[in-house]
Amino acid sequence: MRKILYMTAQLISNIGDGMQQIALYWYIYSLTGSPLSIGIMIAIYYLPSMGLSPFAGALSDLIHPKRLTIIVNFFRGIAVFILALVIWFEVSSLYFLYLFQLIMAILYTIYKPASQRFIKHTFYRKEIPSIMALSNSLEQVGYILGTGFAGYLITIIPASITIGLNGISFMLTGLLFHYISLVANPEKTVNHQSYRSMIAEGIQYIKSKPDLKWLLLISVVGSFGLQLTITVLPALANQLGGSGSFYAILDITFTAGGIAAGLILGIILKKQPKGVFFCTVAGMMGTSIVISINNNAAIAVLMLFLFGIFVTGHLIVSHTYIQLSSSHDMIGRVIGVRTILASAVKVTSSLLTGLFAANFGVHFIFHIFTSLLLIALVTLFLRKRFQKQLAL
Questions:
Q1: What is the band of 164 on the pLDDT scale with cuts at 50, 70, 90?
Q2: Tens digit of pLDDT for each residue in 83-112?
Q3: CB count in 10 Å sphere of residue 86
Q4: What is the largest CA-CA distance in the chain?
Q5: How many beta carbons lie within 10 A of that of residue 219, not counting itself?
Q6: What is the CATH code for 204-389?
Q7: Domains in the chain: boundaries
Q8: Which of 90, 163, 187, 346 is 20 to 30 A from 330, alpha carbon to alpha carbon?
Q9: How far apart are CA 130 and CA 128, in angstroms?
Q10: For residue 74, how many other CB atoms are within 10 A of its CB?
């Protein structure tokens, strides 16, 4: 029952997120007529994570994880309802939408480590690999369903109603989380311990575990690959002679690869986890090489599907190993550090890939990414003992 409730909550939440993203970005574009306004919205969403993640991680280790995830979901729902009402009464401005995005980004920064600690206390250790894999697949499925629903709804009803439906999804998610029982009760934290001391304690914990520290660094390779793909897909579709519909096909293909990765790894991580981390990096490098030299549309579709499997697979394996390598009382702070690294990579990679793609072409971007993956592969090969220590 725990798994069913959790997975149902995840699916509902991700459908709502997909609906809001399409409806909100379409509304902004219709309001401004400028793609730059959407780019700014995306950048705003990642910026709070770079500065607030240490505090969010400490907060998640201080407060009961189930209680915190429910509270944050309800606040996110309220914020979305307010946005929907403002758009409905046509009193919104672009700056208000930026402010809303900032508020949602701050709430997500708090939610991210809290949700990971919630998983740590909700499921047994042996269940976590399959939970992480299946949860990722549902995230991708929810995104596709949400964007599909929103694409239809915004043609027949106001965008404000479509956005408001995500507020309902947040409320339903919080309600479902309420009925999930924990298998491990969080230890009570000393209330007078300051955030600064908790953050320092978390950093010291990571420093004391060299393999965890290295894992946090290597895990951002997947984040780089994900953001790179999102940034260059329109240019890749155009370079291959396709239109907007071909861009949509490439986007759905990459997302479908992410769904497949969750289903495949849900089985592999249970039965034969050794070498999976190495294989995801090798797979990213192999498909990246083909994409960097390919000019055929059909081959590009196939390679993006495989690239989606390996990129998403890398993220799933990274998050699973981080979960299993961190203690119950430190997981929030560890995820906080990982979020800082990932957010910095996402902001940097989106800006650099956009700049380089404009000046040197999409193929050049994948050449650079292949070089980075080669370095990662050599590092993995030199640290074989890492796989042994983190064997599930």
A1: very high
A2: 999 888 887 678 888 899 899 999 998 898
A3: 17
A4: 62
A5: 21
A6: 1.20.1250.20
A7: 2-180, 204-389
A8: 346
A9: 6
A10: 16
